[in-house]
Amino acid sequence: MIERTLVLIKPDGVQRSLTGELIQRFERVGLKIVGMKMAWVDKAFSQKHYAAHVKKPFYAGLEKMITEGPVIAMVFEGIHAVELVRKIVGPTEPRKAPPGTIRGDYAQHSYEYADKKGIAIKNLIHASGTKDEADVEVALWFKNNELHSYKTVHDVHVL
Ligand code: CDP
Ligand code: MG
After folding, report:
1. What is the predicted pLDDT for the residue at 1?
2. pTM of the predicted protein model
3. Do the domain assignments include residue 18?
4. Which of 8, 104, 141, 153 lies at 20 to 30 Å from 52 by C-alpha?
5. Whose CA is nearest to atom 16 of ligand 1?
């Protein structure tokens, strides 16, 4: 039930100097950072990370966006962490993302606008969509010795 999930602050979030505010959104519900790094994604790594999207029409724009500057990659650990992080992040399209979600509070792109400009939706965060996706993505981004465990902290202070 205690899960790990991958979160990226995408290049638009780093460029807008929102990293601190965005990390706080996850920490304040009690999620624990168990891994963190800054990295500049190249085209080959983008194709691995977004393997499920490589053949889709929006992939070219997505690759351009995710490789345009460094990202902050994090693994968060917590109860139902995959679902909890997605709830905090909100739906893919900022236009539809409710206030209170990251994508609703900090972004305004729509599919219509992005498609017209021929660019990817700028929505600040990547978050694993399912437990299976999280397991694959955490292993892609982090070696075992780059991840830490907060099990004792959870048992004593949170749960
Ligand atoms: O990030 P999320 O899991 O919510 O959405 P996704 O369907 O896995 O798509 C990955 C990313 O591709 C999105 O976050 C958008 O940045 C981008 N995208 C886009 O630009 N246009 C689309 N029609 C769909 C996705
Ligand atoms: Mg996704």
Report:
1. 85
2. 0.95
3. yes
4. 104
5. 121
